[in-house]
Amino acid sequence: MKITLKKGREKTVLKYHPWIFSGAVDRVWGEPNDGDTVDLFSNDGKFLARAAYSPNSQIRARVWSFEDVEIDKNFFVDKVRRAIEKRKIMNLDKITNGYRIINSESDGLPGFIADKYGEAVVIQSLFVGSELWKNILVEILIEEISPKCVYERSDADVREIEGLHAINGLLWGDLPNQYIFFEDNGLKYLVDPIHGHKTGYYLDQRVNRYKMRDLAEGREVLDCFCYTGGFTINALLGGAKKVISIDSSVLALEQCRKHVSLNNLPYENHEILQGNVFEELRRFRDMGRQFDLIVLDPPKFAPTVSFINKASRAYKDINLLALKLLRKNGILLTFSCSGGVDLNLFQKIVSDAAFDAGVELQIIDIMSQSPDHPISVYFPEGWYLKGLICLKG
Ligand code: SAH
After folding, report:
1. How many angstroms does the Cα of residue 247 sit away from the middle of ligand 1?
2. C-alpha span between 223 and 56 (Å, rounded)
3. Is-contact 390 351, C-beta < 8 A?
4. β-strands 180-184, 187-191: how paired?
5. Catalytically annotated residue among 149, 224, 337, 390
6. Using a 6 Å cutoff on CB, does residue 249 contact ligand 1?
7. 173-to-121, 139, 144, 241, 319 alpha-carbon distances in Å
């Protein structure tokens, strides 16, 4: 089975971009089913790549290989081994046993994510191609890293576009109890694979939380959109005078509190606040409350480019409010995990917020997703997390 592209549409594939949009397809030969392997050809008949076919999605095919190789178990063994080997090169095991082993497109495995949390692995399969090979991929992960269990959290919205139903369940082994444990740079973490967000935790912020640790000493910290308190516990470990953690989720806040006690951190310096960050920031402003360090790590405001304007206003709103709440010499750690908002736009939003707040502001550090979430240079869409550390004058 094969796909021929329209004239000129082979250019992106020749540059190793793994997505073939429906508009680029000239003709589908044979009757490939969901996820079937198809050969991609340019309009003048040159072999381009081997890909997985996705009839219901705008992204009509995703490339497994740009070479003429067999797509079989051996192919996937090689991909998984390479991904594991790369994490070894990053020396992650020295500092953490919670990290992403497979980062979908950027590790050459479109739609497939595997996160390691101690002795457990939580996977996510997001398109029909990875779905077809899912059991084989899980088998390989078991062979290669011998986890105690493999849990599946394939319940992201994007599966619907692919015509796939949501799955949340144990695939292999025994789930220890309600929580899976892992350790990261001297702190213990709990992951709830069943109810947690994504695969249970946000590993992508790992190295950025270390930065918080370095900056927190003696400061009054406001951790907005704290989820289970990754930034909070790093701030407490770093010697923060006080940390207030805000989130809308009761479940996440309960776990945040557990993280503080599990790590024997000074709970008397910690406060949780359940609420809407947009409202709580306004309330603090009206009360004249001030802080020395504020984290803004909101959910994805712009899942796609069409949400950019609305998302930009939301980012500006919270950044403006946070800047007003910061004392002189205060520090803002501000993030965007929206793929549709790139670093330039994000920097402009923060600059507009500073202008409207009438404050002097300097960027002292630029952040990204942690190295276990690598970005293939041929797939810029894989760079979704951007962050700025700013110093208020
Ligand atoms: N900073 C976290 C990850 C944040 S994920 C960490 O380090 O792990 C985004 C969080 O924002 C989620 O926990 C979600 O419950 C919360 N959230 C979403 N909208 C919110 C709102 N309007 N007000 C408060 N919390 C919100």
Report:
1. 5
2. 40
3. no
4. antiparallel
5. 337
6. yes
7. 10, 12, 15, 43, 44
CA of 235 to the centre of ligand 1 (A): 17
Q: How confident is the model at residue 157 (pLDDT cuts 50, 70, 90)?
A: confident
231 lines ligand 1 (CB under 6 A): yes
| Full strand arrangement of the beta sheet holding 59-65 | 19-21, 59-65, 47-53, 37-41, 2-5, 25-29
Q: Which of 195, 212, 224, 247 to mutate to test the pocket of ligand 1 (most atoms within 8 A of CB)?
A: 247
Query: Which pTM value belongs to this model?
Result: 0.96
Using left for φ > 0, alpha for ψ between -120 and 50, and beta otherwise, residue 227 falls in left
**Which residues lie closer than 8 Å to 160 by C-beta, 6 or more apart?**
none
CA of 335, closest atom in ligand 1:
1
pLDDT in tens, 163-182: 899 999 999 999 887 899 99
Question: Does ligand 1 have an atom closer than 6 angstroms to the CB of 195?
Answer: no
Q: Tell me what the pLDDT averaged over the chain comes to.
A: 96
CA-249 nearest atom, ligand 1: 15
Count of positions (residues) in the chain: 393
Give me the DSSP letters along 170-239.
EEEE---SS-EEEEETTEEEEE-TTTSSTTSS-GGGHHHHHHHHHH-TT-EEEEET-TTTHHHHHHHHTT
In this structure, what token pair is assigned to residue 133?
Answer: 């090979």
* Residue with CA closest to ligand 1 atom 18: 299
pLDDT (tens digit per residue) in 73-122: 999 999 999 999 999 999 999 999 999 999 999 999 999 999 999 999 99
> Does the Cβ of 299 fall within 6 Å of ligand 1?
yes
> Which element (helix H / strand E) includes 113?
strand 112-117
The 8-class DSSP code of residue 315 comes to H
Q: Catalytic site residue 337?
A: yes
- Ligand 1 in reach of 335 Cβ (< 6 A): no
Ligand 1 centroid to residue 303 C-alpha, Å: 15
Task: Report in angstroms the alpha-carbon separations of 344 from 54, 340, 348, 349, 350.
Answer: 33, 11, 6, 9, 10
